[in-house]
Specification:
This protein is α/β, with parallel strands linked by helices. It has 13 helices and 7 strands. The protein has a 5-stranded parallel beta sheet, with helices on both faces. α2 packs antiparallel against α11, α2 packs parallel to α12 and α7 packs parallel to α8. The longest helix is centred in the N-terminal third of the chain and has 26 residues. The chain is globular.
Amino acid sequence: MQSTARQVGVEHLLPSPEPVRLLDEHGTQVLPSSARRDYVMPTPERLRAVWRAMVIGRRLDAQSTALTKQGRLAVYPSARGQEACQVAPVLSLGPGDWLFPTYRESMALFTRGIDEVEVLSLLRGDRHCGYDPMRHRTAAQCTPLATQLPHAAGAAYGMKRRGEDGVALAFVGDGGTSEGDFHEGLNFAAVFGAPVVFFVQNNNYAISVPLSKQTKAPSLAYKGIGYGISSEQVDGNDAAAVLSVMDVALAHCRSGNGPFLIEAHTYRMEAHTNADDATRYRTGEEVSTWISRDPVTRLEAWLRERGVIDDETVAAVQAEAEEQAASLRDRMHDDATLRPMSLFDNVFATPTPQVRAAEAMVRAESEAGEQA
């Protein structure tokens, strides 16, 4: 009897045996026949908004990559090919929800409505975080792998303790699932019932290390079971499926059922960053295979077939994307105004005596330099 009870308790945690898919590579709607949960096709209006954000996000991503070649960014980790994973989860969030990004989530932050120059200030080397996290309910981009996951779990638990309806969305790459912080974040969230969605973007490589060298798990989604977390895997290049799975995950969290883990199967079309040579560890044939699974063209085909968008719509959104890219390029060519005293603006809400002393020292040295 006890064994049966445990099995029943485990069954609802399991991900679907195959990644959930609502659209195939050609944009044809399909039924998620093997899915363990009910997934509803999002409305055309929502999917049109996702498609528009993906088109604009891809153009801004390409512009950011170009800025590294012009010396305006020190480094840039492109998310081209992962647009559905970057855009759909963000657009599914409510106004009270928090976002915890990695260093690759520039496109997600653009979609969040954060000014592009503020987003790129980290990668330009101006400051650790160029936007106001409290205003945007978005944590600073996290460069160390997976350290944002315990932060997200803690923030979600805090919202739960305060009786808020908010959920935390925490992005992480497949490489980050090999870090201790990944397991600590999941365990804390599960034990304390924190309403957090852990969104794993499995783009097949942790820099140059393929997934097969990281884990023997049937999929990363199964890692949630060991912590008692309901999990799912989804075709990360199918924006409709990603949005639908996110809807279920958010409803799960808001209903007081604790955290939810999503693994999105996608692919990083560009190198890890502009400093990486991806040809050393993957073939052109592999990349070409994934080009045919492009998330933008897949959703565009579905929207066109239903008459939601047409050539005029596509041209208008592309023109909008070009305009935003031009604005970003022009503004990034202006040198940032650096204020040494801003180092102390966001260290503590109430500065400690040590911070005050350091602030006074820097101010005195700055004033002496100006008088010299």
